[in-house]
Amino acid sequence: MELLYNTERLVEIIGDFLQSCKGYGIPEWVLTLGGGVVVAVIIAGFIAVNTLILVLAERKVSAFIQDRLGPMRVGPWGCLQTVADALKLLQKEDITPKKADRLIFFLSPIIVFAPAVMAYVAISWSPKIRVADINLGLLYIFATGSLGTLGIILAGWSSANKWSLLGGMRSAAQIISYEVALILSVIGVIMLSGSLNLENLISCQKDCWYIVYQPLGFLLFLVSAIAETNRAPFDIVEAEQELVGGFHTEYSAMKFAMFFLGEYASVFIASALCATLFLGGWQPVPGLPAVVPPIIWFLAKCYLIVFIIMWIRWTYPRIRVDQLMGFSWKFLIPLGFLNIGLTGFIMAIRG
Amino acid sequence: MTTHKMTLNMGPQHPSTHGVLRLVLELDGETITACEPHIGYLHRGIEKLAESKTYHQFLPITDRLDYIAAPSNNLAYCLAVEKLAGLEVPKRASYIRMIIAELTRIASHLVWLGTHALDIGAYTVFLYTFRERELILDIFESYCGARLTTTCFRIGGVPYTIDDGLKKQIADFIKIFPKKIEEYEGLLTKNPIWLNRTQNIGIIPKDTAISYGLTGPTLRGSGIDRDIRKVNPYSCYDEVEFVVPKGRGIGDVYDRYLVRLDEMRESVKIITQALERLPDGEILADCPKVIPPKKERVKTEIAALIHHFHIMTEGFELPKGEAFLSIEAPKGELGFYIVSDGGNKPARLRIRTPSFANLSCISEIGKGVMIADMVAIIGSLDIVLGEIDR
Asked: Which CATH number characterizes residue B98's domain?
């Protein structure tokens, strides 16, 4: 608890330090660059550590659901298992298939990972911790979120493997369907708050979270976000039992790990966005006194959504590729429009 | 824009081809326009091997046919040899065989359900079914010491009896198992994604099922009532009551799923009845020329010593002739055809395995489906490559 308060303090100190540097004649661009590097390192570090935690959590949650123990050997209660896995992946031989398009094959894990990192910039972690107060923050996150798919398509194409190619093609089809549903699902929230800025969205929920006004929007967002992040039951892009891993069949070592980092980074972004849009962000439950720091509230809400996403993954079978499209176009998108219409109707009545 | 079809190799190394099946698929987008199975990657020449082994020696090799249901293979082989030799098996032995064979059916169906659900993406069911299969393997271990390749029957009877401890172990399992089936069903039977993935997929019409010689749950899923346990009862199956499940009569993947789930329930019924009525008496037939005598008798009686030596070195001779006998194995009709020229080894032994016939229809029903459906169809046929390639 102390530590977290100090974390918030630390952010202030860094900001103050950068401000005070201006007085010593250091050029502005050096400060901007230096600040950018510090932020990038912090975010990359957070993503790496968070991914380790999420992978361990995934394995423990799945073990809990499946009536087994999960990893138990490395460290107490197996808590160092993912660290060991990460070290192993670092040591592995990096194989590039002979017929692969070497440049694109090399670039695609980066194209998957980079946008996921970019999205972290816009998230508002607590009243004090945020990197950039972007006016169109929500739009920015959606824009970066759909960039990652480009990397998956390229990975599928450049692997020179027919299974990977099928995975890439599926990814293209999936993103077209679910991007629409995802954005439609949040329009209700935008209508209520009248803003695309995450700070404003959070402060609008001071008295009542938007999940109360937008239950349908919340469900639509959750389903579309799971599809958007390629998680089961919508993980048709990798579909181990059908496409033998899909787009990452030919990837090994750290390139493979990059895909995983990217996946878990975007799962966390989806959860953070869900918490921001529907669960009041870093604010405590309305009516409760703010005993714990806001960042704890925010992380707790994020991990709750992550847990729900994992729960769904380990319970449902995988949906088929054409059914996935049908589900989006015939079910989610009409419901999204219905939600917008209802929201507008009720807003008009209540003035 | 010109398009062309893509040829795709599915297997022999693929997570959903259940072993080393290789399918050559012709794809139009993700739709399969032609599907050709290639088999033989697990061929060990088991039928030829039989010609160089005595009848007793061949028994352990039958375990390796359908390695998920080894006792069923043992049973079919023993019954075929007994038929040719004209041996009468004691009733207690028949009942023990029935109990073990039905436990095998449950174990096999559990492996099928787990892997089938896994193929469709439901991971958790897999671990649930393997948890219960473990209990059955424990029962096998208590009975004969082996878990997978059991060799748990002998020509003329069974080597071990079911004592009170084992009886209780089986009864305990039978008691908890129906609840576990409901647990699997809770995850799947009414799950909309599961229904979408299995209903009206891979439909096998009645006439197709008959013309390809399908048997077992795959045939009954198409609505045809044929079960060797009812048609041609063996091993006291006519003395227990059970129903042959038939599904909804459409013949899709979902029907075959329902049939196998119901079969597990019926197996529980059969085992319960058999345990109640388990008669007393001998467990091996009285035929010193075929069945090795007990060790104590070998040490004290000269006739027993001679028989023992003869069986261990040369085996036993069967009269000239031929016999075919089939049983209802978990995957369908498993038959052994034995030709004897009067010697101590089969002149020819042919095995009619259910998986081989069941797989044969895949070219026909696999046309026009998607890759994801192909995975579901392979799973629903419940094939084991060990008995396809032999």
From this structure: 1.10.645.10
